[in-house]
């Protein structure tokens, strides 16, 4: 409790939270990653929060980033709202379970799980991409407008029940680590459910806030959310999400992803060292 009060008093630390939110929002939009990958290492190592408080605060920031970014995606008609809401049946359930479990786990377990998720995220960025999964005959139950090629893309979705179960696991990881769960949801939708990568990424971004909100509510009830810090992180996250979506329309972030993946690997190592008491 003393730690949180100290942050409220120190204007420089509060300014740091705004800047952290801006950076996370920009990188989240450019690289298609949840802001939690940025939030957690800084909040844990630099600000000295416990993994539970860091995860709770991270989910609050993710809600702000997802809500702002998804509004732009919805205007473009890319997210599959029907599939996204269906998957959230599992995502919300998993997020609630994950948050309830997290408050009873040892700190080193949460940091180890987060490090594994970071390494998986880095691998996904290095691999860079996914399958378009577009039927050759151009037919499909769902469609979206691809602004880059100026065409309407039609596609089908498979394994809806299995995808919902997989989203439950993504929701649990989201609340346990504070990363948002998109790094697991996107492969489930793209590889397993055969959705085009653009539709999968946009649908994940759209539904991410719902999953994060579910976990954040549990943390809030438990008293794990540092409310004084949350307000400033939200301000920065909204500014960053707005800036990131504007920048992403003008640059190709594919090369940036590979460099950022190296940073994720380094952060994962730092978190493991922190868990062992070496940092």
Give the topology string: H per helix, E per strand.
Answer: HHHHHHEEHHHHH
Spatial ordering of strands, largest sheet: 1-2
Multimeric state: single chain
- What proportion of the residues is helical, as a percent range? over 70%
Radius of gyration: 18 Å
Gross geometry: globular
Structural class by helix and strand composition: mainly alpha
Number of strands: 2
List the total number of helices: 11
Beta-strand percent range: under 5%
Q: Please give the largest β-sheet.
A: 2 strands, antiparallel
Summed over residues and divided by their number, the pLDDT gives a mean of 82
Unreliable runs: 1-9
First-to-last CA distance: 22 Å
Overview of the structural elements:
The protein is mainly alpha-helical. Helices cover 75% and strands 4% of the residues. The protein is built from 11 helices and 2 strands, in the order ααααααββααααα. It has helices spanning 2-9, 11-31, 36-46, 51-76, 81-102, 107-127, 160-177, 182-192, 197-222, 227-248, 254-275, and strands at residues 142-146, 151-155. It has a two-stranded antiparallel ribbon with strand order 1-2. Strand 1 (142-146) and strand 2 (151-155) form a beta hairpin. Helix 3 (36-46) runs antiparallel to helix 4 (51-76) and helix 4 crosses helix 7 (160-177).
Notable traits:
disordered N terminus, 11 helices, mainly alpha, 279 residues
Give a brief rundown of this model.
It contains eleven helices and two strands.
Secondary structure: elements and pairs:
Elements: H1 2-9, H2 11-31, H3 36-46, H4 51-76, H5 81-102, H6 107-127, E1 142-146, E2 151-155, H7 160-177, H8 182-192, H9 197-222, H10 227-248, H11 254-275
Antiparallel strand pairs: 1-2
Helix pairs in contact: 2-3, 2-10, 3-4, 3-11, 4-7, 4-9, 4-10, 5-7, 5-9, 6-11, 7-8, 8-9
